[in-house]
Amino acid sequence: MPGGTEVAVVAFVVHPERPAASAAADEAAVWLTAQGHSAVMVPDGAVGELDPLGAPIDLAVSLGGDGTMLRTVALASGGGVPVLGVNLGRLGYLTEVEPSGLRQALTRFLAGDYLVEQRMTLEVAIDRGDGAPPAVFPALNEAVVEKTVPGHTVRVAASIAGRPFVTYAADGLLVSTPTGSTAYNLSARGPILSPRLRAMVVTPISPHMLFDRPLVLEPEQWLRLEVLAPRPAVLVVDGQNVGQLEPGEAMSCREGPAPARLVTFAERDFHAILRARFGLADR
After folding, report:
1. Is 66 an annotated catalytic residue?
2. Going by C-beta distance under 8 Å and a sequence separation of 6 or more, which residues neighbour residue 31?
3. pTM
């Protein structure tokens, strides 16, 4: 943990289309270097794990909106790197500070004056059925199997913990974490979960069937979704299209091996955040 005279390495992940994000990162990097620490810039959209210096990273700073935050977590979570979110987007559910507070936040982190909130992640894998190793993707918010043909549904056979459950006919099927329950899941009328829970929410999108209720699963109850004929589907993980699933191909979803570690400076009042974001007023 940084603090005192220790030298810290801070990685900045910057939204490429927001000049204010680049300016804030450059200013913070100059300040960090002057304090004897190291700073490195990581492209938003980099793949793999966060080790651009070939050495341990002490902190990853996301400068953008929630999308940049999701991509930063994907880079950082495998190595257990804590993530500080700086909000330059519209909603900022996941971010912790505004750009004007970045230097103070870094000062507090370097002094060890911070908390780390752990959030459940998902491990999403594509099974092509050809014997090849599955492509694996981390997710903090959700994975979605969606239709590709307008005006038509996709048919998806769901199995829970290896046991067949039901075949969905819908515009799509969404699997979210508690953190992601206030993202796409919310607009699909799924339940809102406290973000520090460990659970998976399975929510059909515009279902064309009698059973149209979301499910909340224990994290150990891994899920398999197989696309059935006649139409393919697309798999979207945390807002990124990661591939098309042809009939007979499947994705599996389970709790990720490492949680996201989000830096905060006070206990988050989740319900107060909901009230503020939705303009909820007292009676």
Report:
1. yes
2. 103, 106
3. 0.89
Angle at the Cα of 152 from the Cα atoms of 147 and 155, rounded to 5 degrees? 60
- The answer to whether the CB of 153 falls within 8 A of the CB of 167 is no
Q: Which of 111, 95, 31, 29 is nearest to 264 (CA)?
A: 95
Q: Which of 44, 58, 66, 238 is catalytic?
A: 66
pLDDT, tens digit, 9 for 90 and up, residues 76-126: 988 899 999 998 876 667 888 999 999 999 999 999 999 999 999 999 999
Tokens standing for residue 8: 């810290």
239 is a domain residue? yes
Range of the domain at 234: 122-255
Dig out the tokens for 264 from the structure. Answer: 């905060």
Closest CA to 263 of 64, 58, 67, 126: 58
Task: Note whether 89 and 145 are same-domain residues.
Answer: no
Task: Please check whether residues 115 and 126 belong to one and the same domain.
Answer: no
Cis peptide before 230 (omega within 30 of 0): yes
What is the rounded distance in angstroms from the CA atom of residue 237 to the CA atom of residue 137? 7
Q: What tokens does 18 get?
A: 């927001």
Query: Which sign, positive or negative, has the C-alpha torsion 34, 92, 2, 12?
Result: negative
